[in-house]
Amino acid sequence: MTSITRGRGLHASLQSWSNPRVYHQLRSQLQPVCVRSSLLFSTSASSQQSRRPSPSSPSSSVPSTSIVTAPSKIEVNAPSSTFPADIVDPAPVSPSTGLPGKLKRFVEIGRIYLTFYKTGLKNVYRNYRVSIPLRKVLGLPVYLPVSPPRTISQNNAPSTRKESVLGRAQFQLVCRSARDVRRMIPFTMILIVCGEFTPLIVPIFGSAITPATCRVPSQVEKERVSATKRKMAALDVHVTASKDASLNLLRSSSEEQLHLLAKQFADPVWAASADPASVLRAAAVFGLAKRHDRTAGTLLAGIIYRPRLARHIEYLSIDDEMIHAGGGVRALNAAEVRIAVEERGGVDVSASAKDRKQAENVERRWLEQWLSIRGGGPKSKKQ
């Protein structure tokens, strides 16, 4: 009897599910869920705009770039997708907060950083995809992320460079996307293994494995301090080894230091004929070597550091010409000015500035003077 009763109940349930009225009610209830799911996983611009995260959501402080487009030839500033996304830590807890509240905040911070890193890796992929047509124009391999320039032009003649067909923003997109892709695989492995604990592991390796789009402000500032110490140590040795010990190279704003960087360290003829120790010091100043006195550094100078320095000098020469052709330093935004200054060895020129506005003014004047010395722009007025 029990089995017969259960069979009748199942038959009644099937009849109610086959009722057209019940079917339409269920369809109307499930359809909004499907629509929300499609919007959640869509990467189109319209769907991203329609999905508004709540202010309390951890990912709401890290905006992502869903679409990356190739810049035009007249643009001088690289796309914003080549920079890290904005990140805001949650409000600090009060000292009286218990252990569960503190642990909850640490977990929230881990989730924010995890979202930040995922956004950065997505932008690395998108930037490289957009740069592929530009890489083909330069004759670079598509699936091997080498950075331009790969060949050194004769006498730095602009007409012999393939890069002259690109604008500065396009050239920077190709360079930065290739650099980030080379770091993408090891960084992704750490992110998969460590998850929310990735911010604790990244400082161990630093920028060696971290794409530029995944570097948090504290990491960038720490690397800037390390680069300043490395540069000053190399210049200190250079002053000691120089016959003229009165050279004022240890002051970042000195004309002697700027001329040394622009006219000697960035000179392709000097780089080709300088002794191995001097080449290693120049590489340390430009951030191409971790130390100016590293073990076996002089032995590896001819194999590793001299070619690396020559390519960097060629890169700076190309970038100088593109800045001048694109309207000069005034056409660059503040972030591009800082990057350009640091790539030329001026990592510490604005260290004594009181605020970011003053630092930007100092960096702009320094870059204008660099271009003037190198012959790539008008002389800046001293202020």
From TrEMBL:
Annotated GO MF terms: ribosome binding
Region listing for Disordered, in residue ranges: 45-66
Superkingdom in the source lineage: Eukaryota
Topological relation to the membrane, as annotated: Single-pass membrane protein
Annotated compartments: Mitochondrion inner membrane
Domain Letm1 RBD per the UniProt entry, residue ranges: 198-383
GO terms for cellular component: mitochondrial inner membrane
A biological process term (GO) from this entry: intracellular monoatomic cation homeostasis
Primary location class: mitochondrion
PANTHER family xrefs: LETM1 RBD DOMAIN-CONTAINING PROTEIN, LEUCINE ZIPPER-EF-HAND CONTAINING TRANSMEMBRANE PROTEIN
Protein's name according to its UniProt entry: Letm1 RBD domain-containing protein
Organism: Penicillium antarcticum
Upper lineage: Eukaryota, Fungi, Dikarya, Ascomycota, Pezizomycotina
